[in-house]
Amino acid sequence: MRSQLNLQQIRHLLDDYFEVEYSFRNTREIGEKLVRMEADEQAFVLDWIKRTASTHIEIAYQFAHQAPRALQLMEKAMIEAWLVQGMDIYDLSGLHAALALIRDMDAFVEQGRERAAGSVFDEQVGVLLPFVQGLSGRKLTLEKADTLHTDGEVILLPAVMAHLPRERDNFLLYKAAVAYHWAQVRFGTFRADLVPYLQQHPTPDKALRCFHALETVRLNACIERELPGLYRDMEALEKRLNPEAKPAGWEQWMITLRAPGATAQDSLDLSKQLIDGPIPKPCLFHGQLKPDLVLAVMQRRIEREKARLRVALKAVADDLKQPNADEEPMDRFEISPLDGLELEKEMQIELLVDGKSMPVTDEVKNLLTSIIQDLGEIPEEYLTPAGPGEYDLKDIDEELLKPEDVWSGTYHEDGAYLYKEWDYRRKHYRKNWCVVREMPVKEEHDEFVAGVIHKYRRLLSSLRKTFEAMRDEDRLLKRQTQGDGVDIDAFVEAWADMHSGLEMTDRLFTRMHREERNIAVMFMVDMSGSTQGWVNQAEREALVLLVEALQALGDRYAIYGFTGMSRKRCEVFPVKQFDQPYDVGVRARISGIRAGDYTRMGAAIRHLTHRLNEVEARTKLLVTLSDGKPDDYNDEYRSQYGIEDTRQALFEARRQGVHAFCITIDEEGQDYLPHMYGAANYTVVSEIEKLPLKVSDIYKKITT
Q1: What pLDDT is recorded for position 183?
Q2: 556-564 vs 519-526, strand pairing mode
Q3: pTM, to two decimals
Q4: 298 close to 190: Cβ distance less than 8 angstroms
Q5: Do 37 and 69 share a structural domain?
Q6: What are the 10-residue block averages of pLDDT along the chain, 704 residues in total?
Q7: Do 150 and 13 share a structural domain?
Q8: Theoretical Cys-Cys bridge with 520: which of 55, 175, 395, 617, CB 3.0 to 4.6 Å?
């Protein structure tokens, strides 16, 4: 049982938390408030003052002043949510915004009741974004806004969905909103001649509402055909939120709009007939239509994508042209299928030359898909390769951001992966804190790999034989009902059971069984600045020997390097991905691995766990090659903070079925590795030059 603290004890703690030696804050008033609290309340408030002070002292100071009133207005769990949100706001928007939240406690209390069962965009976007980008058609993105709508490229969602009493149902509202607005883009809502019609109509708001109601009928049918499971959830939500029946007479028009061949223009034509009658209310997740906004975005996109497609087709045509040939330039491509309705349904598009299908890049496929969604077809002029100098993409295209140019100007997060990071002082995550970007590895086409193979040719021959034997190993299965031999241990136990009057088991045999290896391994290679020189060479030699031996074993594997500087620049380098063969390019990238900056391990582990979980395998391993503890350019991460974040990232990986192992040359590794990886999940190679000799042997031990 906790004992109550006196004023002197409380002030001593507060002086430490608020760093009064430097901040000159007066802790007497706060101490006098806290001394009147019960022991449990004192402990709760002081713990959260300490946590928030680790983020910013002023936030903690403002909370401390309001703590007694906060305990009167809120449950402890709600106070925790209030403070965590304040720290998150500080991370994203700075001190002024965070203090505004902490000072306006009454507003948070009111919102908190709403948010208690609500679903929050910042927490759900990590689920909703992969969901929408996994659907067919243009890859849409998600952002927060005050109103629910789409501009044809982005779906704008409210910060909180809190319209139903259960959090799961509010999350379904988010998912329904995303699916419905995806359907607007995917199935051509904005191809109807809507803007001119509204501009000429005497009551444009009513005309838009009527069109929206009819178009919802058509889109619901499209979603039912494409996503039947989600459609059932959406239908149930609509009945709860909007139980009124459709107006009389709408049934016959609904049959027309639910037909597979119905278009947005059909909805617009019908709206002209039904506008004078009753119009059903839209459901909450149907949001708003903003046709002027969509049209402006679409017009910019149409010109941009036409140019990009024709330039891309010119590149394809140039590749098809025979060297030194004196033939006329290709004047036109074709696509298959040519039926617009079939294109609309399947989005399976082939590029044809003389009736033969041509392989095309994902960029070309995405362009064709996006153009069809805007226009309903690929116009003939789009399939004509661009002429010399016809387009300057710099003038008409949006700036395309390349990973390697990320530091040439203001830092951007487009195309990056955002990951949370564990702050052990807060005992909470910092949300979307680390920016991870996959960067290309500079290929070195030299004799490094060949030199390693020659240098270790005898060892490599032995490794290959060892790995081949692992592939063909049989496993002895004991306690079988039938087999080739007697299981002595099982027989002795059965004999004892029989003489003691128990029933004797029939599992008395052994048999050999050859198991199919079903392993996926991710090698995570430290490319921090401390690996410069011999360590870097030893890592690369170890990778060459390991990969050459793995060719005989057949395990699926990938190799990624990692380095970076600060939370905004966490970089991983794909050396070999799971679906890539071990070819000249992979050898050149292994040779090109070079020392970089620092070692922010938590973000790299989270990203590579994500990559590993994209692979189907019974056993998944994350093997780290490193020369030291987590580190970054600031003192914070290279302290206990970095170790705790890495430990938490490894714990998250284990929960996802990924087994982690670390191979390090840091002789001080035993001071921190057991805490991060566990006592049996690391090994220390004391001599750098022995790393290439040890790695393959270690791999054998951890995979058998």
Answers
A1: 94
A2: parallel
A3: 0.60
A4: yes
A5: yes
A6: 84 89 82 91 93 91 92 88 86 84 84 67 84 87 88 89 84 94 93 91 92 94 93 92 80 87 92 89 91 89 84 75 56 59 52 70 79 83 76 52 46 70 90 88 91 88 74 64 79 79 78 67 90 87 87 85 89 92 92 90 94 88 87 80 93 91 84 86 80 78 75
A7: no
A8: 617
Please check whether residues 577 and 688 belong to one and the same domain: yes
What is the spatial distance between Cα 228 and Cα 376, in angstroms, rounded to a whole number? Answer: 24
Location of structure tokens 């050459």? 548
* Residue 257 half-sphere exposure toward CB, CA atoms < 13 A: 27
687 lies in the same domain as 609? yes
* pLDDT digits 0-9 by tens, 270-328: 999 888 888 888 898 999 999 999 998 888 888 888 888 888 777 777 776 655 555 55
182, 227: one domain: yes
Q: Is residue 693 part of a domain?
A: yes
Contact yes or no for 427/442 (Cβ under 8 A): no
Indicate the number of domains in the chain.
5
What does DSSP say about strands 509-513 and 475-480: parallel, antiparallel, or unpaired?
antiparallel
CA distance 349 to 694: 50
Pairwise CA distance, residues 566 & 596, whole Å: 13
Query: 69 and 209: one domain?
Result: no
> Distance (Å, rounded) from C-alpha 385 to C-alpha 331?
7
Residue 146 lies inside a defined structural domain of this protein: yes
Point out the domain boundary residue: 489, 513, 537.
Answer: 513
Helix H or strand E segment including 385? none
Q: Is the domain of 507 the same as that of 595?
A: no
Select from 361, 392, 423 the last residue of a domain: 392
Residue 265 near residue 193, CB atoms below 8 Å:
yes
405-436 pLDDT, tens digit per residue, is: 444 443 455 567 889 999 998 888 888 888 89
